[in-house]
Write a sequence for this structure.
């Protein structure tokens, strides 16, 4: 009997330990597996049934039904501003995502693999907020959690040499948080963050259309306007949207132009530009000189807006470049850095 147990312990089960990478974004959650790549991209939404006290809709399905549910079903956003705001909801969401992505790959195996999770958190996250992310993943089924500051891995995923002593400025224009960071020597030399990110811009579009046309829009329509017709290349697009009339309460259609969306969001983009200028102004002269030579890199969903790099460059008077794959820059950065264990250890938040 004892020999059998001893021999069992010596067996090296396939996939006995698995590295899984997490980017827990405000708008989108991304999960990747070592040597397999990205296996899940889902909106960070879930539906909660207040009668049965259960989470019943997850990811895309929950986002699709936003604004269309009965009173007893609430659509929850468990991550706000890049940090966990609803612990139990986020645990439930991650469990669901792991089941339909990571564990799906190993459904034929008798034993589920032990998961080593590598996750990013905003550089401005407090110790309590970092601990909350760690606890979420442990409770969702991970056996070990390695936490790293997000700007460093976003920089790595944007093809920056983050361990070089030549400073780089990266602006991560995400859904819940605008993170500006100067990276050098595997650390953050200076950083600044703003809450007026892509989610906030949807509200600005809502207010603009409400005041100008007396039409109430849903969140999905506001996002559609921002993604589909906003650009900074003087390309005037027009689209017809439908909302609820403020006067009659009935459906009302209006035609909206690119110039109007730009007018609604221009002050917000100028705040981001001012924050970049402030970060540069408060940096040492040697750092400023390097940034001027090397330029600024944009990542995140807003970096996909056509012409935003030239718009920023004209205002800041420094070259601005968009990352090759701005939406997946962070998760690609985790996969890149995780290949070298020594690099990962250097970046890990103790």
């Amino acid at each position: 009997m004892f020999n059998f147990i001893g021999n069992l312990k010596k067996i090296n089960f396939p996939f006995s330990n698995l590295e899984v990478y997490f980017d827990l974004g405000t708008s989108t959650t991304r999960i990747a597996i070592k040597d397999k790549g990205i296996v899940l991209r889902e909106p960070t939404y879930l539906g909660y049934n207040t009668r049965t006290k259960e989470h019943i809709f997850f990811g895309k399905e929950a986002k699709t039904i936003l604004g269309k549910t009965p009173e007893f079903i609430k659509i929850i956003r468990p991550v706000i501003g890049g940090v966990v705001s609803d612990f139990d909801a986020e645990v439930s969401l991650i469990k669901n995502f792991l089941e339909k992505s990571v564990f799906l790959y190993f459904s034929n195996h008798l034993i589920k693999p032990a998961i080593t999770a590598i996750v990013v958190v905003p550089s401005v996250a407090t110790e309590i907020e970092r601990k909350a992310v760690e606890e979420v993943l442990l409770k969702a089924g991970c056996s070990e959690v390695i936490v790293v500051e997000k700007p460093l891995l976003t920089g790595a995923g944007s093809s920056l040499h983050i361990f070089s002593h030549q400073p780089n400025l990266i602006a991560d224009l995400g859904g819940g948080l605008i993170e500006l960071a100067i990276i050098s020597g595997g650390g953050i030399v200076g950083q600044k963050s703003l809450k007026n990110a892509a989610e906030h811009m949807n509200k600005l579009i809502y207010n603009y259309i409400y005041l100008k046309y007396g039409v109430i829009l849903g969140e999905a329509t506001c996002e559609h306007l921002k993604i589909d017709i906003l650009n900074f290349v003087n390309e005037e697009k027009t689209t017809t949207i439908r909302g609820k009339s403020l006067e009659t309460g009935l459906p009302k259609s209006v035609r909206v132009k690119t110039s109007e969306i730009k007018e609604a969001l221009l002050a917000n983009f100028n705040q981001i530009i001012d924050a970049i200028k402030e970060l540069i102004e408060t940096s040492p002269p040697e750092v400023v000189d390097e940034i001027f030579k090397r330029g600024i890199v944009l990542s995140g969903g807003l970096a996909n807006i056509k012409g935003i790099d030239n718009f920023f460059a004209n205002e800041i008077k420094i070259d601005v470049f968009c990352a090759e794959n701005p939406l997946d820059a962070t998760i690609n950065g985790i996969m890149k850095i995780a290949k070298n264990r020594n690099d990962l250890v250097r970046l890990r938040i103790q």
